[in-house]
Each structure stands twice: as C-alpha cells, then as structure tokens.
Design brief:
mainly alpha, 73% helix
Length: 88
C-alpha cells in the first residue's frame, strides 16, 4: 500500500503543474481514512500511522506547488491538519 502511494506521490509531483488534481478531494479522502483508522484501531496503530504518514507526504507535495495553484478549502485543510496533531 505504501509503495503504491509513494509512486502516486511521485507521479503527482512530476505532473502537478499540468494536472487537474482535486487536492480537496484527496485531502478529504485521506481524512476519512484517518478517521476510520482512528476509530477502529486507535492513534498508535500501524494502520493509523501509515495513513498519517501518507497525509504528511501529501502535505509536503502541496507545499511544493506554486502558491495559488492548490485552491484548498480551509475547512478541508483544517480537518486534515488536525489529524497531524493526534499522536504527537
């Protein structure tokens, strides 16, 4: 699972300037997965930690994009970032 995610992240980073990635949709899906893993397995589980790592990597990718190209919804971003606080 993590290897596929890494490959997708690399692909996105190479095509970010020309792609039509809906960053809000991806962040929302990661947040849903994190919420499910948190409720099912807890914050110290390997499942939750793996998805949290994916979120961290995705946020790094977004931060590397030129300003204004992400069109991020503040509520979606806030929810995603709140998951980075859990377990720290």
């Amino acid at each position: 699972m993590e290897q596929n995610f890494q490959e997708n992240m690399e692909s996105l980073s190479h095509t970010a300037g020309t792609s039509t990635v809906d960053y809000n949709q991806v962040l929302s899906q990661i947040s849903i997965n994190l919420s499910n893993a948190l409720e099912t397995y807890g914050p110290s589980s390997s499942q939750y930690q793996a998805i949290q790592k994916m979120l961290e990597e995705y946020m790094k990718l977004i931060n590397r994009l030129p300003q204004g190209t992400q069109d991020l919804d503040s509520d979606t971003l806030s929810l995603a970032l709140s998951f980075l606080e859990i377990g720290n």
